Amino acid sequence: MSESGEQPAETAPQPRSGAWLGLSGKLLLLTIPLILIAEILIYVPSIANFRVNRLNDRLATANTAALVLDAAPMGMVPDALARQILASIGARAVAIKSGQQRRLLAVADMPTKIDHDFDMRDMSVWSAIFDAFQVMLDSGDEVIRIIGPPPGGGQFIEVVVDEKPLRDAMFRFSRNLLLLSLAMAIITSGLIYYALHHLFVRPMRRMTASLVAFHENPESSARIIEPSRRGDEIGVAERELSDMQRDLVSMLHQKSRLAALGLAVSKINHDLRNLLASSQLLSDQLASVPDPRVQRFAPKLMRSLERAIAFCQSTLSYGKAQEAPPDRRLILVEPIVNEVRESAGLASDASIEWVNAIERGLMVDADPDQLFRVLLNLVRNAAQALESQKSKSAPAHQIRVTGRREGAVTILEISDTGPGIPAKAREHLFEAFQGSSRDGGTGLGLAIAAELVRAHGGDLNLVEGTIGATFRITIPDRAVELLSLREARARA
Fold this sequence. Notes:
By secondary structure, the protein is α+β, with helices and mostly antiparallel strands. The protein has helices at residues 23-70, 79-89, 125-137, 163-216, 233-286, 292-313, 333-343, 368-387, 423-426, 444-455, 479-491, and strands at residues 93-98, 101-107, 116-119, 143-148, 156-162, 329-332, 353-358, 363-366, 398-406, 409-416, 459-462, 469-476.
């Protein structure tokens, strides 16, 4: 904090990148080769189709020239006219086969050999592609012969042409197609990149920045991401992330409060133990006073001080994983209940009616000190609930303690006629600092009681549908004790 008392504004840090290339760059590098692959898949059949069309054009012009040459009287065509016709169609020779007769209609500069033959009557797609790239990879002035169907009823027509003009035309077509494809690839890549960047990269970058900022200060609610209104998976992820961050902030605030409370309690505990030790020395001196009333209350005072000192020794035990294991043995329930009543100050409180409905001779297999703590916390909560109910129309204030056995299970119930437990408090009833329904309450009493009962293998539950609040404690006998009892009876 600055000297003026103003806190500097929190700025969300930029996400730390573990590599030189971010998600946008990777998306761009992924888009470009995909577009290039698509262009290659378009180019390969296009160049093959271009070559086939050029060859078919040569055959079409050769067919026309063959009709002209064949229509000459006696098949006699002047050499000059024949050369002129062949030059117009870009051919060196034209021949036709009808039946068993093969006639050379016109020839000019006939080469000594033919480098390649292409039969257009039976050409597959793969051969067209292969031949197209073969032509483009050739070099020099090769001569090719093109064979196709004749214009009349003949078997085939042949035309001999130079390969170089075809190769040059294919290269021009490839160049034009490359330029056009490059322009289309740039436009398509840009549109795809923009769409993917807007739909996916920007939200992911926003979520990443929020996570990094939240990691820097997880207790700040200002670092929580504000979810968008998107209905897809990214929108769901944003809302779930926002809820998770809010829960984590709330949890961290609660943990900080618990840590501060633990520190404060540890400081108080040091001095409180000394005060209680002094009070214990005074209570020892009171035990020697011959007054009957002093002799009656001194042992109870000494036991209360001993419990208080023991509590101070383990004040921070709730912050550990669990309480100390219970020292269980068979004990009578009614004396502990009577002691709880006196410790809670209800023996002399005429405003609250105390009803003891414990079965005579009821015994429980439990730690007496821990059972005392459980009952004292529940009885004090009931008394505080009755004290908070000041309405004249409220029913009579009453606390009822019942106890019974069902087989090998001891059941104790503490009931009151107070206002009951609100629905909001029931959601976290046995959680520290969350289950209290009273202003200023911490909820530690129920949390400690539930933990101690669970240590005995039992349960502490709120009974529904009763006047006020009724808590039921169930403590089963130890299986080892039952087995030992059966063995003892068998031996007897």
